[in-house]
Amino acid sequence: MLTSKCLKGVVTGYPLAINATDVKISEVDFNPEFISRVIPKLDWEVLWKAAESIGHSEGLPQTIEPKFEDNEEFLRKAHKVLLEVEVEEGYLTCPESGRQFPISKGIPNMLLTEAEVQ
């Protein structure tokens, strides 16, 4: 959902690549109804690539199957990636400019200098 399109010369700035140096897993109660409502709002291909880039795509399908809301195994895997896996340290990289945004304590720093803004 984050983009770097406000950088000079960047048209889309999406998706940002994730380079994680520290990933934390926190257990969160499974809520299949919530996950079922969130999934249609996601760019699933981008989510899958993000999960793969941080080593958490195992068992997660690359495409959403019809009737996914009835597949508890799929919903549990989506739940894990969406709610339990957190990048604590690393950086996000703009696909167009290569500009890196640091992630510290789970928070990406997307602040730009005046010279970088369009």
UniProtKB/TrEMBL annotation:
CDD domains linked to this entry: Trm112-like (cd21089)
GO biological process: rRNA (guanine-N7)-methylation; tRNA methylation
Family: Belongs to the TRM112 family.
GO molecular function: protein heterodimerization activity
Protein's name according to its UniProt entry: Multifunctional methyltransferase subunit TRM112-like protein
Record-linked InterPro entries: Trm112, Trm112-like
PANTHER family registered for this protein in UniProt: MULTIFUNCTIONAL METHYLTRANSFERASE SUBUNIT TRM112-LIKE PROTEIN, UPF0315 PROTEIN-RELATED
